[in-house]
């Protein structure tokens, strides 16, 4: 059995953390453990995992996953699960490359040949929506997502919500579908109003209408609107997601493959969601490795509906983008709202290791932006 000989990680611009695993036969696999704004914490966790897992059988992906989850006593949460995600994705890539097949062939085979995708417009303070929507349409997209609002107070003027409705109408006028991300920055007194105001204009979904720390309020909000409720990027395992499925509060799950335990856990979450007739639209404003991992799972997932991709997202401005760090960036070409399923081995992308190593030197950790209200108070970002 091949043993894990080396685990390395690379902090790279704009805000990503890549993981490389090499076995004692020279086989390699790449993963992504990016956790926006908390890079140093994940790196510290990876240091501990490197010591623990070097020398273990690289083929025993599930055993390594369970060892990480159960032996540490404390488990779950964004830091532990992001570190585990990077290792899990890399192990799947390594195993599939060694066998010369795409990862989706190891998890049941494909149920589709193309993957529906959407892209971001607008930024953290949404603006220039019509021009940005038209640019995305020219790139081949048929759907976009945008932040619903700038920062809001716990109770703000109802007029602060008017711009969101107008932006949705503008995107629809271009002929695009649009998901509206409340981003957890809209508290309950405002969220109820915004959901109702948007409903007649038929958004694709409303995302994180409230933070997932308020499950009862999300359930109540879901009963006030016919618009699909989407959430999941801040839920880090099937156990976190379970109460939202059981309450019927969510229509579309958006777990992040770099935060929820990798390919192994994403598959289990998708199977749970299917039993509740809930769709999968994974969160991924991250790098090419994370997106490729999502595509591999989407290929074999019946209840997958649409995939977020970070091409040209505002966080990448002036830095590396989704097409960086690989020798075959053409796999991200969008046609008619879809990308073709990659056919190469493993993740289906070929990492440019020279570029990764070069740009990781001196790379700074990304710091999450924030909002301060007019009274000097911290607001949700």
Automatic annotation (TrEMBL):
Pfam families: MR_MLE_C (PF13378), MR_MLE_N (PF02746)
One term of GO molecular function: metal ion binding
Keywords: Lyase, Magnesium, Metal-binding
PROSITE patterns linked to this entry: MR_MLE_1
Any one GO BP annotation for this protein: amino acid catabolic process
Domain of life: Eukaryota
Cited CDD domains: D-galactonate_dehydratase
Database matches in InterPro entries: DgoD-like, Enolase-like_C_sf, Enolase-like_N, Enolase_C-like, Galactonate_deHydtase, Mandel_Rmase/mucon_lact_enz_CS, Mandelate_racemase_C, Mandelate_racemase_N_dom
Domain Mandelate racemase/muconate lactonizing enzyme C-terminal: 126-228
Names of required cofactors: Mg(2+)
Name of the protein this chain belongs to: Mandelate racemase/muconate lactonizing protein-like protein
Source organism: Hyaloscypha bicolor E
Classification of source organism: Eukaryota, Fungi, Dikarya, Ascomycota, Pezizomycotina
């Amino acid at each position: 059995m091949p043993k894990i000989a080396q685990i390395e990680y690379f902090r790279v611009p704009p805000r990503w953390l890549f993981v490389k695993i090499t076995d004692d036969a020279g086989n390699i696999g790449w993963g992504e453990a990016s956790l926006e704004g908390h890079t140093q914490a994940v790196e510290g966790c990876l240091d501990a995992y490197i010591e623990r897992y070097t020398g273990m059988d690289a083929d025993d992906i599930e055993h390594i996953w369970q060892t990480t989850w159960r032996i540490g006593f404390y488990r779950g949460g964004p830091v532990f699960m992001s570190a585990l995600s990077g290792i899990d994705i890399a192990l799947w890539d390594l195993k599939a490359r060694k066998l010369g097949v795409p990862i989706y062939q190891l998890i049941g085979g494909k149920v589709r040949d193309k993957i529906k995708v959407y892209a971001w417009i607008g930024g953290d303070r949404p603006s220039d929506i019509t021009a940005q929507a038209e640019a995305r349409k020219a790139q081949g997209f048929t759907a976009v997502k945008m932040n619903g609002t700038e920062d809001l107070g716990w109770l703000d003027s109802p007029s602060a919500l008017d711009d969101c409705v107008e932006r949705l109408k503008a995107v629809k006028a271009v002929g695009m579908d649009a998901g509206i991300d409340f981003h957890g920055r809209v508290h309950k007194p405002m969220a109820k109003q915004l959901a109702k105001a948007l409903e007649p204009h038929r958004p694709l979904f409303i995302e994180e209408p409230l933070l997932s720390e308020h499950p009862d309020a999300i359930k109540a909000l879901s009963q006030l609107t016919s618009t699909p409720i989407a959430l999941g990027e801040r839920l880090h395992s099937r156990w976190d997601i379970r109460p939202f499925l059981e309450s019927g509060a969510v229509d579309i799950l958006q777990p992040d493959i770099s935060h929820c335990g990798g390919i192994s856990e994403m598959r289990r979450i998708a199977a749970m969601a299917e039993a509740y007739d809930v769709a999968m639209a994974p969160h991924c404003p991250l790098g090419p490795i994370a997106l490729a991992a999502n595509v591999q799972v989407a290929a074999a997932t019946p209840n997958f509906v649409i995939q977020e991709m970070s091409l040209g997202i505002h966080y990448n401005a002036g830095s590396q983008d989704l097409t960086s760090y690989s020798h075959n960036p053409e796999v991200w070409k969008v046609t008619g709202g879809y990308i073709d399923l990659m056919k190469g081995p493993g993740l289906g992308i070929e990492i440019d290791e020279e570029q990764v190593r070069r740009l990781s030197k001196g790379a700074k950790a990304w710091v999450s932006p924030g909002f301060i209200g007019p009274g000097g108070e911290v607001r949700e970002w």
